[in-house]
Predict the structure.
Amino acid sequence: MLYDQQVVLSSLNRYMLRILLSYSISGQLPEGWSVQEIEDYLRSNRLSIHLAVFCFDAPIHSESARHAVQSDLLSRLCVCAKAYKSHIICMAFLPSDRFAAASAALRQQLFGRFGAMGLRVKNEAYSVETSPLTLPASYRKLYAQADAMLVDNQARFNRLIHLYSLEESLNNAVFEVDADEMRRILDEITDIVRGVNGNNHLNAVCYFSFLWRSIERTIFYRIGRRKTSADKLIIDEELYACKDVVSMSSAIHRYLLAYVRDVHLQNTDSYHKVIERTKDYIQERFAQPLSLEDAAREAGVSACHLSKLFKKEEGVSFKQYVTRVRMEKAKFLLSSGKLNIGEVARACGYSDPSYFCKLFKKHWGFLPKEFQLHN
C-alpha cells in the first residue's frame, strides 16, 4: 500500500475506498455500484489500488479500539481502514509510477500511528491491483500469507525456546564432564543452527562463538577461572576457518572437553588455595582498607565467585570475616595496654574511633573501655 498526500488528498473519494474495502472482503458491491464505474475512475486518473494487510501481536477485541484505529487512519492518512480480529486492512489510490518513492514514507507513517495506539505490527503483506475485480482474491491471498508468516514465526519462536533449553543442558553436561551428552546436545544444536541459518557461514560462526563464550562465562562465575583473550581469539579463528556447522560443532566439543577436564581436575585444590590466599591477604592488610574486589584480584578469581566461595567454605561473608580478624587484633592490642582506644582503632583499619567502639561492642558484647578496665 502506498500513499502520497499531495496527490491523494485532493482526489480520493473516501466513500469509494469504503466500497472497495468491503468488496475486497465480501466480493460484493452495494446496490448502485458497478465494477466498470470504478475501473473508469481508476483509468481516468491513472490510479492503481494499493491493498495492505497488517497483522498484530494481539487481537483488537474492543469495538471502540477498532473504531479508533479506523477513524485515526481516515482522518490522518485518508486511507480506508477496518480492524478485524488481529489484523487491519488498508487501501489507497496512487499512480503506479509513484510506487517506489512513496512506499517507505507511507510504511513509516502507518507504523508510527499504530505504535501510538499501542499496536505492534507482527507481519504485513501488500498487493497492487489495477482492477477491483482482483481485490477479493488479493485480499484472501494476502491474509493467507500473513497467516502463514504467523505460523512460521511461531515455529521460529519454538525453535529458539528449544535452543535455549539445549544450551542450559549443555552447561549442565559441561560441569558433569559428560563427553557423550555434550556431543549429543551439540549435534542437536547443530541441526537447529543449520536449519535456521542455511549456508550463512558468518551467522553460524557468530552463534558458535556466542555459545562458547556463554559457557566460558558460566564456568567463570562458578569456578572463577577463564580463558585468556588470546585463547578466545584462537578459538574464534578456528571456528571461522571451519567449512560447515558440523566442523564448528566439533571444534567447540574439543575445546570444551580440554577446558572442563583441566578445570575439574583442579577444583578441590583450587578452592582451598583461593580461600587460603584470601585469608593470608586479610591477615597481612587488616590495618588497611580492604575490599572484596581487591582480594578477588589478588586471588585471581572474580569478586562474585570469591563471595560465594568464602560464604560456602568459611560460613561467613568476606566482610564478616574481615571484621572478625580486626576485632581479634583489637582485643589483643587493648589487652597489651600500650595503645589507647583511638590508636587501636587506627591500627585495625578504622579511622573513626566511635564506629570502632560500636563494632567492638556488637562483636564482643562490651565496649573497648570496659574491656580495658577488666584487664
Remarks:
- The longest strand covers residues 48-56.
- The mean pLDDT is 80.
- Strands lie at 48-56, 80-84, 87-94, 121-129.
